[in-house]
Recover the amino acids of this structure.
């Protein structure tokens, strides 16, 4: 049994939560699609608001006191502004404005909800990564102790201070420590892969 020289390296993964959340907001396609939808809804609301306004018309008229249009004669100039709105069109435009407003609010609520969900996913994934990292260190310490125990028992067996059963037991314990350490390292790798997926890019690239 090879009990030395087989230590596997793993990254000490320490990242700032807020930085990862901001990165996820930039990378996740669903949040970007909702951002575009909100911008589009705001534009539709503006268009509906403009179409709901009355039509304004300005006019000017100048008249002379006689038909020869003599510039020296007295003239009357009339200037005015008029507004016109078809009653049916007004109700229709207001309805479209209300619909556009409700649609925009609905999309904004969906956007805020998705932002919170993404932030929560990133937080949970990062917490899981850090927890598995701490567990790996515990398992590695237990494994190193098991390796040392095998060495001590073997030396004791050579001098008649340990039995064959002691040697076998120490080797079994070392195998269990190896297995627990490897499984925990696998959990750690899976947690990093999940975090990569949640953030939308390889925050720790595997090679």
């Amino acid at each position: 049994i090879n009990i030395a020289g087989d230590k596997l390296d793993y990254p000490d993964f320490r990242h700032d939560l807020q930085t990862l959340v901001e990165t996820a907001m930039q990378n996740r396609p669903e949040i970007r699609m909702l951002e575009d939808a909100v911008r589009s809804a705001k534009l539709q609301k503006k268009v509906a608001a403009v179409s709901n306004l009355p039509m304004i018309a300005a006019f000017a008229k100048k008249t002379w006191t006689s038909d020869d249009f003599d510039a020296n004669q007295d003239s009357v100039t009339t200037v005015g502004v008029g507004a016109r709105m078809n009653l049916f069109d007004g109700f229709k435009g207001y309805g479209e404005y209300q619909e556009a407003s409700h649609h925009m609010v609905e999309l904004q609520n969906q956007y805020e909800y998705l932002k919170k969900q993404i932030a929560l996913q990133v937080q949970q994934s990062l917490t899981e990564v850090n927890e598995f990292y701490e567990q790996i260190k515990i398992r590695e310490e237990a494994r190193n102790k098991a390796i040392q125990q095998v060495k001590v028992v073997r030396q004791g067996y050579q001098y008649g201070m340990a039995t064959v059963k002691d040697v076998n037991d120490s080797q079994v314990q070392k195998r269990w420590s190896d297995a627990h350490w490897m499984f925990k390292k696998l959990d750690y790798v899976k947690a990093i892969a999940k975090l990569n997926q949640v953030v939308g890019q390889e925050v720790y690239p595997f090679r």
Q: What stands out?
A: The helical segments are 17-27, 29-51, 87-158, 164-199.
